[in-house]
UniProtKB/TrEMBL annotation:
Protein name in the entry: Spore coat polysaccharide biosynthesis protein SpsC
A Pfam family: DegT_DnrJ_EryC1
Domain of life of the source: Bacteria
Membrane spanning residue stretches: none
Gene from which the chain derives: spsC
Cofactor list: pyridoxal 5'-phosphate
PANTHER family: DTDP-4-AMINO-4,6-DIDEOXYGALACTOSE TRANSAMINASE, TRANSAMINASE
CDD domains noted in UniProt: AHBA_syn (cd00616)
Length: 401
């Protein structure tokens, strides 16, 4: 699929024009064939291909299959994590203000208080010290994001949480192939989730994976993800229960499980993941090379030794006085850029608490994400870099406002 796409759509948010997108999936004949096989088997719901994808992803992480569950979104995983941890009024959850809105929603919806911590301005990830400063006597959990696929200070944060006896939740939505010293991001936490939505590295359209370290809690997660049923009331239970249609619900749940159509796509995408990440790394390295001497442009920091990234984001940092103007210039030239993620401590709905967050405030004003997906060709990467250099140079000139 060609990375420059035309977006015909009646909604004004999707103009009919050709743009180089920040995100874009890579789908092809293998995924179509996998869907065709599901159709031929005539079983579309949660079934054997779901179990197969779960086992494959567990192997990818280096954990046991019973600890992993395919669900319909990482957001569902965030909400499930708050239920599994029993969060509610009177509890505090520490999380970086630079997080996706789903994290804030999941915490605030329980009645617990989000307590926002700062991040390093350059990596946009919190350090263990940032987390520690935000802890309170009522802290019931810590929830961290791996910004752009960078593992960040996850090993030290996990050690801090273990020392304090505080559960760690990893929002690994950006980090499907990221590792720190040989351990997969997501495997550090007590509960973790990955996103496979249409903008991620590995995509299933909608979908996500949940990891729960404690096996008994993992069993409960499966019940909550399917209406709270302790055992299926359908055909699978017909040979082991006299009245298999009777319900045995003790905990209120909902239906957030994945299905065999999306799981079949996921299995193909997981096989292709190494090539996706390799291409994304090439693009990031090309940006590094092309922009290394660009005045007024700060590049992402180098990965620490022993860390690998999924290269989900490529971000540059500019003078706040020109950042928004540069984004507008690039859009005029058919290059879409964006900021991920606007600070949550400024969202009125959360009523979160925090002290000064200088790193967060700085990166919210100076950071811009450039297009990064495996379908970008070299010419487009060069075009983006050239357009960025030119715009920054013009907007930074003394006579430009």
């Amino acid at each position: 699929m060609h990375p420059s796409v035309t977006l015909p759509h009646p909604d004004p948010f999707f103009p009919e024009e050709t743009v180089i997108n920040v995100f874009q999936p890579s789908l092809g004949d293998e995924e179509l064939q996998a869907i065709a096989e599901v159709f031929a088997d005539n079983w579309l719901g949660h079934g054997p291909r779901t179990k197969k994808f779960e086992a494959e992803f567990a192997e990818h992480l280096g954990v046991e299959p019973e600890q992993v569950m395919f669900i319909n979104s990482a957001t569902a995983g965030l909400f499930l994590s708050t239920e599994l941890l029993g969060l509610g009024p009177g509890d505090d959850v520490v999380l970086p203000s630079v997080s996706f809105v789903a994290a804030g929603n999941a915490v605030a919806a329980t009645g617990a208080r989000p307590v926002f911590c700062d991040v390093d301005e350059r990596t946009l990830n919190p350090t263990a010290a940032d987390i520690e400063r935000a802890l309170t006597p009522r802290t019931k959990a810590v929830l961290v994001l791996h910004y752009g696929g960078y593992p960040g200070d996850i090993a030290a944060i996990a050690a801090l949480c273990e020392e304090r006896g505080i559960p760690l939740v990893e929002d690994a939505a950006c980090a499907v192939a990221s590792t720190a010293d040989g351990t997969a991001c997501g495997a550090f936490g007590d509960i973790s989730m990955w996103s496979f939505d249409s903008m991620k590295v590995l995509v299933t359209g909608d979908g996500g994976m949940l990891y729960v370290k404690d096996r008994e809690l993992a069993r409960k997660a499966r019940q909550l993800a399917y209406h709270g049923l302790e055992q299926s009331s359908g055909f699978a239970n017909a040979r082991v229960s006299h009245r298999w249609w009777e319900l045995n619900v003790r905990d209120f749940g909902r239906r957030v499980v994945g299905n065999d159509i999306t799981a079949a796509i996921g299995s193909v995408q997981l096989r292709r993941l190494p090539e996706f990440v390799a291409r994304r790394r090439e693009i990031a390295e090309t940006y590094d090379r092309l922009l290394a001497d660009a005045a007024g442009v700060r590049l992402p920091p180098a990965l620490p030794a022993g860390h690998t990234s999924s290269y989900y984001f490529y971000w540059v940092q500019l003078d706040p006085a020109v950042r928004d103007k540069v984004a507008a210039d690039l859009l005029d030239q058919g290059v879409y850029t964006t900021l991920r993620y606007p600070p949550l401590h400024k969202v009125p709905a959360y009523q979160g608490d925090c002290g000064p967050l200088p790193g967060t405030d700085a990166c919210a004003e100076n950071t811009l994400l450039l297009p990064l997906h495996q379908a970008l060709d070299d010419a487009e990467v060069h075009s983006v870099a050239a357009a960025l250099r030119k715009s920054v140079e013009l907007r930074s000139a003394p006579d430009r406002s």
